[in-house]
């Protein structure tokens, strides 16, 4: 029996930390997890889960509008922000309880309060010190707020779920997945939304054809974009906020949402004092087995800034616990990780973009399907979907799949299995189409 209080002490009860705690405890380890906010982490409490629920709620705006073309008469429709906000908050509370139950049922001790590492085997939580044979840091990431005068008058994705009322005007700074998702949500709900960005590109790193399609569709829907601009000052007035730009122009708004990316949450943990090294991005530097520069301290999830996705953090936590406490040595495979943007319409992507594939494989073949989904046709919407397959010409393997259109993330998950398995374009072609569906386009590209 170890002389430490616990075999494992996890800092952060998010997706990665909870999975590592549960698996380690299942292997017989004595586990504690420290959490200073709420069990469940960013994804469950103030990230992808409540965001997706807002996406569902917002989409009724177009569904109700389209209903008339399908024979339905909808009278007296109106939207109440407080109802959606409160129902989403209730669901978050339910999930928070389920995550806590998971820890309790696996006999994991929950330590509430801010955690600080004192030495290689000691963590102080809310003034009390606890020792552990191994420490795992799973503190995730936080929204980045730029250093501009008046930046404190903006909000982040942490606060947007709790707005007291729906804003009439909103400016979103940034053009990544968080920015485009909330832009779609609040535009559909009736807010006048403007997206501002320093470059002329949205969704940098995504397949450019999809990003361009989303931009064109968003403009057609009435979303406003101010690109190639630099915000230099935020001024608070009696009427709201005034955003001042380097070109001398300004925009008035009720809410400014910072959506400029997320940075690893490493502050206040005592890392420098105990010798835990950070990389050039300010994330905890770890090896392939998640071990930091201090042998007894490990890290998983967004705090390592390898791939900031919830399923990645979960798998890293699982791998860590199996390796250290279960005698099962396996590592996370970071190839062909599927991802999605729950914009309006949504995007899904797995594998290499066309440019990445050309750099990696030389000659590639590209197949596209550009079509109007059947529902959009009858609804009288001109909005078109775009699917794209990228194929290594030398092997015929599909090395990338990218799509924008209704239910793209749901379809993409199945396609990711094929890309991960290394299936060829010929095997896609040999697969019988399921008609009439949007997904059949994946096996009809010639």
Structural commentary:
The protein is α/β, with parallel strands linked by helices. It has three domains: 6-143 and 263-325, 3-Layer(bba) Sandwich (FAD/NAD(P)-binding domain); 151-260, 3-Layer(bba) Sandwich (FAD/NAD(P)-binding domain); 339-443, 2-Layer Sandwich (Enolase-like, domain 1). It contains twelve helices and 21 strands. The chain has helices at residues 15-26, 41-46, 48-66, 81-105, 177-189, 208-221, 271-274, 310-325, 354-361, 374-379, 408-421, 425-430; strands spanning 6-11, 31-35, 109-112, 115-119, 122-125, 128-137, 141-143, 169-173, 192-196, 224-226, 231-237, 240-245, 250-253, 255-258, 262-264, 297-299, 339-341, 347-351, 364-371, 385-392, 398-404. Strands 1, 2, 3, 4, 5, 6 and 16 form a seven-stranded mixed beta sheet that branches. Helix 1 packs parallel to helix 8 and helix 3 packs antiparallel against helix 4. The radius of gyration is 24 Å and the shape is globular. The termini are far apart.
How would you concisely characterize the structure shown here?
This protein has 446 residues and is α/β, with parallel strands linked by helices.
User: Which stretches are low in confidence, meaning pLDDT under 50 for 5 or more residues running?
Assistant: none
> Share of helix among residues?
25-40%
- Mean pLDDT, nearest integer? 95
The fold-level CATH name of the largest domain is FAD/NAD(P)-binding domain
* Helix/strand/pairing category: alpha/beta
The CATH superfamily name of the largest domain is FAD/NAD(P)-binding domain
Query: What kind of sheet is the major sheet?
Result: 7 strands, mixed
Shape: globular
Q: Which CATH C-level class of the largest domain is it?
A: Alpha Beta
Q: Under the CATH scheme, which architecture of the largest domain would be assigned?
A: 3-Layer(bba) Sandwich
Report how far the terminal alpha carbons are from each other.
64 Å
Total tally of structural domains: 3
Annotation, overall tally of beta strands: 21
Q: How much of the residues is beta strand, in percent?
A: 15-25%
Radius of gyration: 24 Å
Task: Compute the number of helices.
Answer: 12
């Amino acid at each position: 029996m170890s002389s430490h209080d616990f075999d494992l002490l996890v800092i952060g009860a998010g997706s990665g930390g909870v999975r590592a705690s549960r698996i380690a405890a299942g292997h017989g380890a004595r586990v504690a997890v420290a959490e200073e906010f709420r069990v469940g982490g960013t994804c469950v409490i103030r990230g992808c889960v409540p965001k997706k629920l807002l996406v569902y709620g917002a989409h009724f705006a177009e569904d109700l509008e389209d209903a008339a073309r399908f024979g339905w008469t909808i009278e007296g429709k109106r939207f109440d922000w407080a109802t959606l906000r409160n129902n989403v908050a209730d669901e978050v509370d339910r999930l928070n309880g389920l995550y806590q139950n998971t820890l309790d049922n696996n006999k994991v001790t929950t330590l509430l309060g801010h955690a600080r590492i004192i030495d290689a085997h000691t963590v102080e939580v809310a003034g009390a010190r606890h020792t552990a044979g191994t420490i795992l840091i799973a503190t995730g990431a936080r929204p980045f707020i730029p250093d501009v005068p008046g930046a404190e008058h903006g909000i982040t994705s942490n606060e947007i779920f709790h707005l007291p009322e729906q804003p009439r005007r909103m400016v979103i700074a940034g053009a990544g997945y968080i920015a485009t998702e909330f832009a779609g949500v609040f535009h559909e709900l009736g807010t006048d939304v403007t997206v501002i960005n320093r470059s002329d590109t949205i969704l940098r790193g995504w397949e450019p054809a999809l990003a361009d399609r989303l931009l064109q569709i968003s403009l057609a829907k009435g979303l406003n974009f101010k690109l190639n601009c630099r915000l230099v000052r935020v001024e608070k007035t009696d009427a709201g906020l005034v955003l001042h730009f380097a070109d001398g122009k300004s925009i008035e708004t009720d809410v400014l949402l910072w959506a400029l990316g997320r940075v690893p949450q490493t502050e206040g943990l005592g890392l420098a004092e105990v010798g835990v090294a950070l990389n050039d991005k300010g994330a905890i530097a770890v090896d392939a087995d998640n071990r930091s520069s201090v042998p007894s301290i490990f890290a998983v999830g967004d705090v390592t800034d390898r791939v900031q996705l919830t399923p990645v953090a979960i798998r890293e936590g699982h791998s860590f616990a199996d390796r250290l406490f279960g005698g099962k040595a396996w590592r996370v495979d970071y190839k062909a990780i599927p991802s999605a943007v729950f914009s309006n319409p949504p995007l899904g992507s797995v594998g290499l973009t066309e440019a990445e594939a050309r750099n990696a494989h030389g000659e590639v073949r590209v197949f596209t399907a550009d079509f109007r989904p059947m529902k959009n046709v009858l609804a009288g919407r001109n909005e078109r979907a775009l699917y794209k397959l990228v194929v290594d010409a030398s092997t015929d393997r599909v090395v990338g799949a990218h799509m924008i259109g209704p239910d793209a993330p749901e379809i993409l998950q199945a396609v990711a299995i094929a890309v991960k398995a290394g299936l060829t374009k010929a095997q896609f072609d040999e697969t019988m189409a399921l008609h009439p569906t949007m997904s059949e386009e994946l096996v009809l590209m010639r």
